[in-house]
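User: Need the bound-state model for 2,6-diaminopimelic acid:
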Amino acid sequence: MKLHSLLEYLPFAKQIGDHNPEILSIEQDTRKVMEGTLFICIKGSIFDGHTFAQAAVEKGAVAIVASEPVKVDVPVISVPDTNRAMAILADAFYGHPSQKLYLIGITGTNGKTSVSHMVQHIFNEGKKKTGLIGTLYTKIGEDTFETKNTTPDSLTLQKTYHQMVRSITDVVSMEVSSHALVNGRVWGSDFDVAVFTNLTQDHLDYHKTMDEYKQAKGLLFSRLGNKYDTKHPKFAVLNADDDASSYYESITSAHILKYGIEQAADVKAFDIQFSNKGTTYSVKTPVGESVVHVNLVGIFNVYNTLATIAVGLCYGLPLADIVTGLSTFQGVPGRFELVNEHQEFPVIVDYAHTPDSLENVLTTVQSMAKGRVFVVVGCGGDRDKTKRPIMAQIACQYATDPIFTSDNPRSEDPQAILKDMEAGVTDKQYKVIIDRKDAIKYAINEAGKDDIVLIAGKGHETYQIIGEQVLDFDDRLVAREAIRNRV
Ligand SMILES: CC(=O)N[C@H]1[C@@H](OP(=O)(O)OP(=O)(O)OC[C@H]2O[C@@H](n3ccc(=O)[nH]c3=O)[C@H](O)[C@@H]2O)O[C@H](CO)[C@@H](O)[C@@H]1O[C@H](C)C(=O)N[C@@H](C)C(=O)N[C@H](CCC(=O)O)C(=O)O
Ligand SMILES: Nc1ncnc2c1ncn2[C@@H]1O[C@H](COP(=O)(O)OP(=O)(O)OP(=O)(O)O)[C@@H](O)[C@H]1O
Ligand SMILES: N[C@H](CCC[C@H](N)C(=O)O)C(=O)O
Ligand SMILES: [Mg+2]
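Assistant: Bound-state model below.
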């Protein structure tokens, strides 16, 4: 594609230098630049991409997009905001791929990974070719690719959509983080369905207030568009039982489909029955009623399945097929994952790392336990500090044996993080074991028949970040070893 054809998408951009080179790729990272690349200078939190412009040219870049003056011998496209330009150019360069996919974006504090997998599963079962983008990985059909972010930057995203279109993907189920919405990573993504799971405290280091955080998530709904034609209707799938939904309803012009248990909802669950094996409930929808069975426990999973049913209905999947699909869903790695070494008590690894998710998962565990509830929990460093005392208090409220330990301390002093947690507890006994492996071993050695051990916070993670080091660490493997070596 010629540079000037791309620039038609940036009507007021100024070009310095009049060449019109062939653009073979677009990159924002010098480490990926090749002959024929259009290099975009992004100001990040660590580096300013403008300082790499010359290095990019030396590696073969034939044009530069910049918001600051850069001295290079190739055409420079001057724009006020390179991040916005990147999203627009990437969408154009890859041929507007998201318009060719049925794109489902899922946002909310908790449940994005869970819902995105359930959604993908029901479409897989419905014989659609699916893609998935999120915390764990990107998947195109059976192929899995590593991801650095829950929602990748706009360039990576558009490239991924392009690959999905080339693989003849029908439906993409994708997590959309609040960071991504604020950063413009999904500018140029044409969503067909936007899903809201819930809004509770997290990321107050980044968004500063809950209101700001709520508005950040709102960007998914306000940008959804208002295509009311029967071929491309847009839908906002909202949680009727979460107060924030009325705000999202007010800022979107898409069709609304609400799901819930308590308030009036289009997709509503009733007669919910839990057992140790799973959950059964009845669901009323605009297209009829059905009985749902899933091999998952916890009221939060009822919400996740309701959101999934609503998404399936937006697409036009028959209710019976959606319900059949849900019945074979086997869960997500690191989400309420059982570690089974034939021990006499359940050991559960779960990704709960927010106050609300910890409370949800602990109340579920509490309802299942006949004896003691052990919880091994910590809080991440360089993240929202205000959630630390609240999570500690919740651990003490619902567990008989709370054990505070390290999560990913990152650049912070692990002792200081634990002190922040302890500040939330006044009248309850808890144990502090700074080394996560020792904390897991302790809980597993202490637990007996009728008890449950919950290891919270790191779920699927296979590393622990301490200072600058990324060390191998997997709660599931550590727990397995501890069970085998139980004393
Ligand atoms: C704070 C933040 O969001 N940072 C993101 C940002 O990195 P950054 O701002 O540090 O970028 P930088 O390293 O300063 O680099 C600036 C520019 O120089 C370029 N560069 C850099 C070095 C070099 O040698 N050559 C070069 O060209 C870079 O490619 C980039 O274009 O851009 C990167 C590429 O897109 C992201 O991977 C990175 O996410 C980091 C890893 C991160 O931890 N982000 C978190 C806060 C986040 O976004 N989390 C949400 C999930 C939250 C949730 O749980 O809901 C997510 O969606 O992942
Ligand atoms: N709908 C829900 N409401 C509240 N808690 C939930 C819900 N679904 C899952 N959880 C809890 O939250 C944890 C994280 O779930 P999940 O990974 O699906 O969320 P996420 O939104 O993708 O998180 P992240 O933003 O960190 O990627 C789970 O391990 C479970 O304990
Ligand atoms: N996406 C979340 C993941 C937190 C996982 C937890 N283990 C931690 O490191 O705090 C975040 O970056 O805040
Ligand atoms: Mg996730």
